[in-house]
Amino acid sequence: MERTHRTWKLIAFLSALCLLSSGCWRPASAMEMKAVHFTYYVHDTLVPPGVTTVVVAGANASLTGPSALGDISVFDSVLRKTASNASAQVGHSSGQLVSLNDPAEKLIILVQDITISGYSGTISASGRFNFSTLSWELGVSSGTASFRGAMGYLRPTIVALDPVFPVVKYEANLILPKFWN
Ligand SMILES: *[C@@H]1O[C@H](CO)[C@@H](O)[C@H](O)[C@H]1NC(C)=O
Ligand SMILES: *[C@@H]1O[C@H](CO)[C@@H](O)[C@H](O)[C@H]1NC(C)=O
Ligand SMILES: *[C@@H]1O[C@H](CO)[C@@H](O)[C@H](O)[C@H]1NC(C)=O
């Protein structure tokens, strides 16, 4: 087949170019990684004005009452530097929280956009956790801009279970490939 033959020749030629320039392909083992740790605080407002979390599904669902499998809340929370709601805003945490069979267990899927000293971008994370333990882990699956190719985990810890202004501390433990950054 003439066409197939030509395609293979082209691939061989491109591969040779890549090897010569040594920039097209790098083995994963040669990829340099850097560990990055920082903390920030998620601030929610559960009553108007400026509500940051709403219930979108669930027959009897409420933000603070008992939960049942399938209750879903959607949030667009504010990220701040400290546990004080007067501290500087550093981004947003948006996503959804789903209640599971055990009322203590939740599924969370979120994207946080964060701008701190030296870094700006989004972090994508998700997890299944026991809400009554007050601290848990979320696996980081990816990121954008300064956080491209991010791996690692986030550790949320409940600081204040205030019925109107709950605050959760987030500790980011990331591994970033220098290749992208
Ligand atoms: C919602 O609450 C009502 C009244 O308490 C109850 O009869 C009903 O079974 C509840 N529905 C669900 C899905 O929990
Ligand atoms: C900050 O939190 C306090 C309670 O801790 C509340 O009284 C105040 O209204 C909050 N301010 C804003 C802007 O949310
Ligand atoms: C959730 O955590 C609480 C408090 O540690 C514990 O009593 C409960 O058994 C846990 N539930 C599950 C499903 O792990």
From TrEMBL:
UniProt keywords, alphabetically: Apoplast, Secreted, Signal
Instruction: Give the subcellular location.
Output: Secreted, Extracellular space, Apoplast
Q: Which residues form the signal peptide?
A: 1-30
Instruction: Look up the record and report any one GO term of the cellular component aspect.
Output: apoplast
Matches recorded under InterPro entries: Allene_oxi_cyc_Dirigent, Dirigent
One BP term from GO? phenylpropanoid biosynthetic process
What does the similarity note say? Belongs to the plant dirigent protein family.
Subunit field text? Homodimer.
Q: What does this protein do?
A: Dirigent proteins impart stereoselectivity on the phenoxy radical-coupling reaction, yielding optically active lignans from two molecules of coniferyl alcohol in the biosynthesis of lignans, flavonolignans, and alkaloids and thus plays a central role in plant secondary metabolism.
Q: What name goes with this protein?
A: Dirigent protein
Per the UniProt record, the source organism is Marchantia polymorpha
